[in-house]
Design a protein that fits this description.
heterodimer, A: Aldehyde Oxidoreductase, domain 4, Aldehyde Oxidoreductase, domain 3, 5-stranded mixed β-sheet, 21 helices, about 25% strand, B: alpha+beta, 2 domains
């Protein structure tokens, strides 16, 4: 399944590669787009949750009588009312890993502040929240652990029975070869870095509307979703309902970035209420809930050592990744994906020599972790890039020269961690970003500025992004991300195309891009293609949209199904035109004989013949112009580089980002404007991780960043115009050479920003060991340096 | 319950509402104008921005009863009656100024006020003027470009700047 020749006619690519305006936008700019909170069914009830105020506590009793009898309240659910649902837990099958299942509502014990304890269903949200005030809970607070250090300390309170030391998983790779390399190294650098806990913070928080069709008994859940089929499966497991009685629909989705792949306890409660009450029930998460109880992300402690020879060539790396998973590992890939992928992805675009890594997952009394843009990759790439700068400083060579000495070649190859790259433009991406940012000129300007007491800095980080976690990436390197994707393509009696995919767009513009793909496969205008996604009732099975996979799996499935339909269409035309298939071509909505302009038949007539012409049906046996196809692939990897320049105010520590340049190579681009958008958005989120965002918890386990006044998202005033450029190295594995992208900038940007800050304050030392690198942290570093000086 | 009379997108509306109901909720639920979005409900993100008597305000920080006698304009009131897009809508579409679209109505209402003011706007100024709205998807570059383009389009259509 490789090469563009698999789909005749595709190579022309009239539409693929064009920066078409999005078909999604007219609804969104007029207010007509319908997100889950905009859907109304007659008699819809609203749900609100009572959440634990304690990070760790026993529930000795709960009294909901007053809430139940309040006018306007229809139902109050506690753990006893959802006891027949199956607890949610991760679907990872790893030897030695402990499970930490959670019931939909906490029964005897809560393990984080924000954990749902009861749900009120009322005529409207205002009344539901009133009723929450009437619920009495008899709490017995327990001591809590709010950090990895607290959680693994001797005598620490335990979150889950059977999880010794609050550590649910631990593994190590053999390290003898790496140890030997360290013994012989001319240079060794080490760094500890705490990757901060962040919130993906989609502008639309979580939400679900559940309703039972009284005639079919089907439960339909409209969810702010990026993976409806995964959610149907997880709901089926939790509710004990067969999948054929559940439909999951993603309406317009206001951003997701990873955590909306899964089923949450709140979803299960809402579904139970809809099934019991036989009325539509809706829960729309507010921002406070989102910041304390929705999945958080990325937090881990990283220790990395690099060993190099006298010229700076890497001999070995030793690493320890310890994830702070929060109170439960319960999303489908659990907490493993964060520290596991961190360990896996450490090499990036470098030959690192021998490698040894310890990984561990630790439970704390904080909101559970789920994947968020750049999952795992962010942690390891950031630490590696910081340490490469330190190594260059120690050796006394230019930081980019050090990177060049260790960079891999462009050909496909396998990393020290077993990932088989499909080739890229690793060195060229670095060269291009240095050229665009004006690296040499900047260094001169930086020198002059330092003489004036101004602190300028530059950070440049090449990155590699895994973009199609499929069956073979699972088999090759043990990454527990499942893959199963299909598309259905059909031509209707109007001669128009319908493309139904198992991916699920939530802002990326798939309806635009996939119409371009199908248009090229058939030689029609994209306006003649209708794309359907995000609905288990209307599309074939697919894993959904996450991990930058949709360009590869969407395009792959569509082109494979399109090829089957196109073959059938040509056979029909061959009969009617009395010409061999080889002499035919698709163009402008017709099939015609190549070189004979008048010998052509419109798609509508061919579809009509396929349906109603007994001669055609008899000749073809199966003339149907619909096909469904499965697609899988060897893993693909995009690459690129980010360059950032900053100025640090020596008086206040405030960091101003002057320029950001992002270079990306994602193979063939379906729609460059969409790629630019993903690139810039990923940069912005990376700046947040580096400088601003943190889901802060007190030492007692209380969440402290509970509004957007405390949880700081990047604003337009904090970002410069983000400059972008592209290289194109088509993947040898996928039709059209598509690789996919969307996380690379999130992966590369934090390291670039931090290296720029460290470069700026380098004369004053860089002893900052945690993200985000806040203004206060920079100021403190400058103060320490002055004290030392 | 209090009866509130307000003009919404040019039409007079009379609704009976609880005093505690937010303007955003009344626009969305009672009047069915779901284009206005609630992103944070505490006045920071700007997704709920609407115009009240010509000024952009956060409809999550106002009670509906405070809108008595006011003229409200929402994202649904930006396009012309014939469906012709407002220059800010056209510019956001052209510049890829949106991805998930959830913050977009708020940005459009903020940007419409800026663009309609007639003041010349460059990209830096646009970046500053939209900094009260949060977008999680775009990184703001395309939004800033769209605001500049919309301001230029309005000036071209009506070269005399508003006083």
């Amino acid at each position: 399944m490789s090469g563009t020749e698999a789909v005749p006619g595709f190579a022309r690519q009239r539409w693929v590669g064009q920066p078409l305006k999005r078909v999604e936008d007219p609804n969104m700019i007029t207010g007509a787009a319908r997100y889950v909170g905009d859907l109304a069914l007659p008699g819809t009830l609203e749900a609100a949750f009572l959440r634990s105020p304690f990070p760790h506590a026993l529930i000795r009793g709960i009294d909901v009588d007053a809430a139940r009898s309040m006018p306007g309240v229809v139902a109050v659910l506690t753990a006893a009312d959802v006891a027949d649902t199956v607890p949610l837990t991760d679907l990872v099958d790893l030897e030695g890993a402990a499970k930490t299942p959670r019931s939909a509502l906490a029964a005897a014990k809560v393990r984080y502040a924000g954990e749902p304890v009861a749900m009120v269903v009322a005529a409207d949200r205002y009344l539901a929240e009133d009723a929450l005030e009437l619920i009495e809970v008899d709490w017995e607070p327990l001591p809590a652990v709010a950090s990895i250090a607290q959680a693994v300390a001797d005598g620490a309170p335990l979150l889950h029975e059977g999880v010794e030391g609050n550590c649910y998983y631990r593994a190590a790779t053999a390290g003898a070869a790496a140890d030997a390399a360290f013994d012989e190294a001319a240079h060794v650098v080490r760094r500890r870095l705490h990757i901060g806990r962040v919130s993906s913070s989609a502008m639309e928080a979580r939400g679900i509307l559940a309703a039972v069709d009284p005639t079919s008994d089907e439960l339909t859940c409209w969810i702010s979703s990026q993976a409806p089929f995964q959610q149907r499966y997880l709901l089926s497991l939790a509710l004990g309902l067969p999948e054929n009685r559940i439909r999951v629909v993603a309406p317009a989705v206001g951003g997701a970035f990873g955590p909306k792949d899964f089923v949450f306890p709140e979803d299960v409660c809402v579904a139970v209420a809809a099934l019991r009450l036989r009325r539509p029930v809706r829960w729309i998460e507010d921002r406070y809930e989102n910041l304390v109880a929705a999945p958080q992300a990325k937090e881990q402690d990283v220790e990395l050592e690099l060993a190099a020879d006298a010229e700076g060539r890497l001999l070995a790396a030793r690493a320890r990744f310890t994830g702070d998973t929060g109170a439960y590992s319960y999303s489908a890939p659990g907490g493993f994906i964060d520290f596991g992928l961190a360990a896996q992805s450490l090499p990036g675009p470098y030959a690192i020599g021998e490698y040894a890594a310890d990984i561990a997952g630790v439970l704390t009394n904080k909101a559970p972790i789920a994947p968020y843009r750049g999952v795992g990759f962010t942690a390891s790439q950031t630490v590696r890039e910081i340490l490469l700068d330190e190594l260059a400083r120690e050796i006394g060579i230019d930081r980019m020269e050090l990177r060049r000495r260790n960079m891999i070649g462009d050909a496909p190859q396998t990393t020290a961690t077993g990932m088989t790259y499909d080739g890229g433009s690793y060195g060229a991406a670095l060269d291009r970003v240095l050229e665009l940012i004006g690296y040499d000129a900047f260094l001169e300007a930086q020198e002059r500025a330092r003489e004036e007491g101004r602190l300028l800095g530059i950070g440049v980080t090449p990155f590699v992004e895994m973009t199609s976690m499929g069956t073979r990436s699972h088999l090759q390197s043990g990454i527990h991300i499942f893959s199963h994707d299909n598309a259905r393509v059909s031509i209707d009696l109007s001669g128009k195309l319908t493309v139904a995919v198992g991916t699920c767009s939530h802002g990326q513009g798939h309806h635009t891009a996939f119409a371009q793909v199908a248009a090229d496969a058939f030689g029609v205008d994209p306006a003649d293609v209708s794309v359907i996604d995000g609905d288990t009732g209307r599309t074939p099975w697919g894993m959904g949209t996450f991990a930058s996979r949709s360009a590869v799996f969407g395009t792959g499935t569509i082109l494979k199904a399109a090829g089957l339909v196109r073959d059938k269409l040509l056979q029909v035309a061959s009969l009617l035109l009395e010409a061999p298939v080889e002499a035919l071509e698709c163009a402008d909505g017709f099939v015609g004989i190549r070189g004979v302009p008048e010998a052509k038949i419109p798609f509508a007539d061919l579809a009509g013949a396929a349906h109603f012409d007994p001669g055609v049906r008899e000749a073809l046996g199966d003339p149907t112009l619909t096909a469904e196809a499965f697609f899988d692939t060897d893993p693909t990897f995009s690459n690129g580089a980010i360059a950032v320049t900053v100025e640090v105010d020596p008086q206040t520590g405030k960091v101003t980002i002057d320029r950001i340049v992002a270079v990306e190579d994602c193979g063939t681009m379906l729609n460059p404007a969409l790629v630019d958008g993903q690139l810039r958005g990923g940069v912005a989120q990376g700046v947040g991780v580096a400088l601003l965002e943190e889901s802060v918890y007190g030492d007692d386990g209380q969440p402290l960043a509970t509004t957007y006044l405390d949880y700081l998202l990047p604003r337009s005033s904090e970002l410069p115009a983000i400059e972008v450029a592209h290289l194109e190295t088509p993947s040898p594995h996928t039709p059209a050479g598509v690789k996919g992208m969307a996380e690379g900038a999130s992966i590369g940007t934090p390291g670039a920003v931090i290296n720029a800050v460290f470069d700026a304050i380098a004369p004053h030392g860089t002893a900052i060991e945690r993200l985000p690198v806040t203004t206060a942290a920079v100021w403190e570093a400058l103060q320490r340096a002055e004290v030392v000086a | 319950m209090t009866q509130v009379s307000m003009t919404v997108n040019g039409a007079l509306c009379e609704v009976d509402v609880e005093d505690r109901r937010l303007l955003a909720d009344v626009l969305r639920e009672e009047l069915g104008l779901t284009g206005t979005k609630l992103g944070c409900s505490h006045g920071v993100c700007g997704s709920c921005t609407v115009h009240v008597d010509g000024e952009p305000v956060r409809s999550c920080l106002r009670f509906a009863v405070q809108a008595e006698g006011c003229a409200i304009r929402t994202v649904e009131g930006l396009a012309g009656e014939d469906g012709e897009l407002h220059p800010v809508q056209a510019a956001f579409w052209e510049a890829h100024g949106l991805q998930c679209g959830f913050c977009t109505p708020g940005f459009l209402m903020t940007a419409a006020k800026l663009a309609e003011s007639g003041a010349p706007i460059d990209e830096d100024a646009a970046r500053d003027l939209i900094s009260g709205n949060i977008c999680r998807c775009t990184g703001y570059s395309s939004i800033a470009q769209a605001v500049v383009a919309a301001a230029r389009a309005l000036q071209a259509a009506d070269p005399a700047p508003a006083p």
